[in-house]
């Protein structure tokens, strides 16, 4: 397996939506505690409430060692020149600590092919007439299918996958080969009651079972049509959301590493907007770090 040259994200990191809803001061306190507890990497998405590179800068400024990964910055939120300029400044200000994860994301765009759009975006970034930065911009692509994974392999430092099974991690590693980074997000819930856990997991998965590209992804993962209705089958839910005691969840997360992941970004679900996942992060840190 491979890492990203010069960067050590650790085997496990945190993926969170929490900071979309919290004030800056609370975010600062949270990430400082995570750094003190030994977490090396924090991943966050861009869903519209917070601009991706601004939030990355805030997280980096609040910490000293933590790696901050956009997972992902939407290519439709800024043009390629703005993405390159912003990421280059973060790389210069915080050498070796920022990774620009790029993804298609956002609302559907009829007639636009994600692979072609992503390749064109990378072309624009690479063609910018500017001096080579002293500290390189590290890039990942949100990727699931074979062609996007191949693009990630050929044009960036690697791939970031989201809501996939352990079997997919093994397939992604084959496509990426031994030299590209593979970071895998996985949702978890520290709940031992099966009915409660699956109800919370189904609420989390509901938006993903209502979009054509996610449904296509799940079909390619091998789930039958009847497993994608009524909130998803128990098998689908249990594969995509690991639940139980911290040690049991940790054991299941390690299966991604055994399948070829360099790093697993752990997303705690079930946290209300504005609340904090810190209690669960503390328990997971004890089990994983």
Description:
- The protein has an eight-stranded parallel beta barrel with strand order 1-2-3-5-6-7-8-10, surrounded by seven helices.
- Helix 2 (52-62) runs parallel beside helix 3 (80-93) and helix 3 packs across helix 4 (114-127).
- The protein is globular, with a radius of gyration of 18 Å.
- The mean pLDDT is 96.
- By secondary structure, it is of the alpha/beta class.
- The longest helix is centred in the N-terminal third of the chain and has 14 residues, at 80-93.
- The chain is built from eleven helices and ten strands.
- InterPro entries: F420-G6PD/mer, Lucif-like_OxRdatse_MSMEG_4141, Luciferase-like_dom, Luciferase-like_sf.
- It comes from Streptomyces pharetrae CZA14.
- It holds the Pfam family Bac_luciferase.
- Residues 22-108 form the Luciferase-like domain.
- This is LLM class F420-dependent oxidoreductase.
């Amino acid at each position: 397996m491979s890492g990203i040259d010069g960067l050590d994200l650790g085997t496990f990191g945190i993926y969170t939506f929490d900071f979309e809803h919290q004030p800056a001061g609370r975010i600062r306190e949270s990430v400082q505690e995570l750094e003190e507890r030994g977490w090396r990497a924090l991943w966050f998405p861009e869903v519209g409430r917070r601009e991706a590179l601004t939030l990355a800068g805030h997280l980096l400024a609040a910490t000293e060692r933590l790696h901050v990964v956009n997972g992902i910055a939407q290519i439709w939120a800024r043009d390629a020149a703005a993405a390159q300029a912003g990421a280059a400044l973060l790389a210069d200000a915080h050498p070796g600590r920022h990774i620009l994860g790029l993804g298609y994301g956002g609302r559907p765009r009829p007639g636009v092919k994600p692979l072609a759009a992503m390749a064109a975006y990378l072309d624009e970034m690479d063609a910018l007439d500017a001096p080579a930065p002293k500290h390189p911009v590290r890039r990942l692509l949100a990727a699931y299918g074979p062609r996007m994974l191949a693009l990630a392999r050929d044009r960036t430092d690697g791939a970031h996958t989201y809501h996939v099974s352990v079997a997919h991690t093994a397939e992604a590693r084959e496509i990426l080969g031994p030299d590209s980074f593979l970071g895998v997000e996985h949702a978890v819930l520290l709940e031992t009651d099966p009915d409660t856990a699956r109800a919370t997991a189904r609420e989390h998965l509901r938006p993903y079972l209502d979009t054509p590209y996610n449904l296509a992804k799940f079909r390619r993962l091998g789930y039958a049509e009847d497993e994608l209705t009524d909130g998803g089958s128990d098998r689908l839910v249990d594969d995509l959301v690991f639940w139980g005691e911290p040690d049991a969840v940790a054991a299941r997360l390690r299966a991604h590493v055994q399948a070829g992941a360099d790093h697993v970004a752990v997303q705690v679900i079930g946290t209300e907007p504005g609340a904090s996942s810190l209690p669960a992060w503390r328990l997971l840190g004890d089990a994983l770090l």
